[in-house]
Amino acid sequence: MLPRRYRCTACGNLTRFTVTATRRTTAFHHFTIGGDLTVEDEEVLDDRVEAVTCRWCGTGAAVVELEDPPTPEEMHAAPSA
């Protein structure tokens, strides 16, 4: 599953968002004798994004999900706000 990318159309933010999501998974949990956990073979059964809020300007109404990977110019551009 590819990570979702977002853009705030209000301020131009491409990098900082608060994402509220519900995820249901199945996984093999391997505990050592000392109690340390390693999670293996994790499979995402359901992943629902409930809300996305821009960390720069605080809006959620202007956040859109992007389909394409960012260009180098987008990654180095300063926000317009």
User: Spatial order of the strands in the main sheet?
Assistant: 1-4
The share of residues in helices is under 10%
> Largest beta sheet, briefly?
2 strands, antiparallel
Please report the number of helical segments: 1
Which regions are unreliable across 5 or more consecutive residues at pLDDT < 50?
none
Backbone structural class: mainly beta
Description:
The protein has one helix and four strands, in the order ββββα. With 81 residues, the protein is mostly beta strands. It has one domain. The chain has a two-stranded antiparallel ribbon with strand order 1-4. A two-stranded antiparallel ribbon has the order 2-3. A hairpin with a 5-residue loop joins strand 2 and strand 3. The radius of gyration is 17 Å and the shape is elongated. The mean pLDDT is 88.
Question: What's the SSE blueprint?
Answer:
Blueprint: E1 5-8, E2 17-31, E3 37-54, E4 63-66, H1 72-76
Antiparallel strand pairs: 1-4, 2-3
